[in-house]
Amino acid sequence: MIIAIDVGNTRIKVAVYDRNTWGGFYHIATKDFRSQIENITEKLPEKPFIIISSVGKLNEYQLKWLATKGFLHIVSANDKLPFENKYATPHTLGADRIALAAGLALEFPKRNKLVIDCGTCITYDFVNQRNEYLGGAISPGLNLRYKSLNDYTAKLPLLSISDEYPLTGTSTNQSIHSGVINGAVAEIDGFINEYKTRYDNLTVILTGGDAIFLAESIKNNIFVRSNFLIESLVLYYQYINS
Ligand SMILES: Nc1ncnc2c1ncn2[C@@H]1O[C@H](COP(=O)(O)OP(=O)(O)O)[C@@H](O)[C@H]1O
Ligand SMILES: CC(C)(COP(=O)(O)O)[C@@H](O)C(=O)NCCC(=O)O
Ligand SMILES: [K+]
C-alpha cells in the first residue's frame, strides 16, 4: 500500500494506491496536514509506504511526524532517477519537478516529452527521447498573476479566475482577466510551439490545479492529466524499489 503526497505551494494532494487500484484522492489545506493524514492512515489495515514530494511549507517536525505513520521516502535529487539529470543546479530543482520528470521518463521512455504543471507557478519540464532531463521554465500561475497585479499597483482590484476573458477586455476587470488568462494560454501555446519546432514526436502533458480550466483555450494537442504528479510519485516509488 502506497500513500503519495504532493505538497505544493497552494495545497497538499494525497492519494492512496493499493494493489493496482487508486483508493482515493484528497486535497488538504496545509494547516490540516496532520489531522487529515491521521484520518487517512488510521483506516489502513497495514503500515503504508509513504512517498512525498514537497516544495511547500512543510517543516522538519511535520516530516518527522509523518515518518511515524509509515515507511517514508522523501523525493530528492540524491535518489536513483529514471532519467539523467542535466540541470546545472540539480540540488535546487524542485522535488515536484523531479517527480514530474520521473513520471515522463517512466511512462513515455521513447519520446520527447514536456510536462506543464499549472499550479501556484506554471512549470515546464522537458525530458528528451534519450531520457535526459534538460530543464524547463518557471512562470507565475494564474492566482499569482492576479495577486501581483493587485499587490504592485494602486488601482487594480484582486480578482480570481473567471469564465469570461474576452480577447479585448472592455472594463478593468475584463482587461485583467484577459491579461491573466489569455496571457497564460498564449504563453503555454508559445512554449509548446517552440518545443515542437525543435523536437519531433513530442508528447505534452498538462497538469496541476488549473489544467482543466486552461486546456479549454489551449490550441495545441495536449493530454490533460490533472493528477499526473501523484501518479508519477507512485510509478517512481515502484521504480526506486524495483
Ligand atoms: N479547491 C481548490 N483550492 C485551491 N486551489 C484550487 C482549488 N480548485 C482549483 N484550484 C486551482 O488550483 C490552483 C493550485 O493548483 P495546484 O496544482 O494544487 O498548486 P500547487 O501544486 O502549487 O499547490 C489554484 O491556483 C486554483 O486556481
Ligand atoms: C517552481 C516551484 C516553486 C513550483 O511550485 P508549485 O507551483 O508546484 O507549488 C517549485 O518547483 C520549486 O520550488 N522549485 C525550486 C526551483 C527549481 O525547480 O529550479
Ligand atoms: K507548478
Automatic annotation (TrEMBL):
Any GO molecular function: ATP binding
Record pathway: Cofactor biosynthesis; coenzyme A biosynthesis; CoA from (R)-pantothenate: step 1/5
Keywords noted in UniProt: ATP-binding, Coenzyme A biosynthesis, Cytoplasm, Kinase, Metal-binding, Nucleotide-binding, Potassium, Transferase
Keyword GTP-binding attached: no
Any one of the GO BP annotations: coenzyme A biosynthetic process
Record: residues binding ATP: D6, V7, G8, N9, T10, R11, I12, K13, T120
Cofactor(s) in the UniProt record: K(+); NH4(+)
Cofactor detail note: A monovalent cation. Ammonium or potassium.
Subcellular location, record wording: Cytoplasm
GO cellular component: cytoplasm
One Pfam assignment: Pan_kinase
Reaction equation(s) it catalyzes: (R)-pantothenate + ATP = (R)-4'-phosphopantothenate + ADP + H(+)
Binding partners and assembly: Homodimer.
Family in the record: Belongs to the type III pantothenate kinase family.
Function, as annotated: Catalyzes the phosphorylation of pantothenate (Pan), the first step in CoA biosynthesis.
Annotated protein name in UniProt: Type III pantothenate kinase
Source organism of this protein record: Avrilella dinanensis
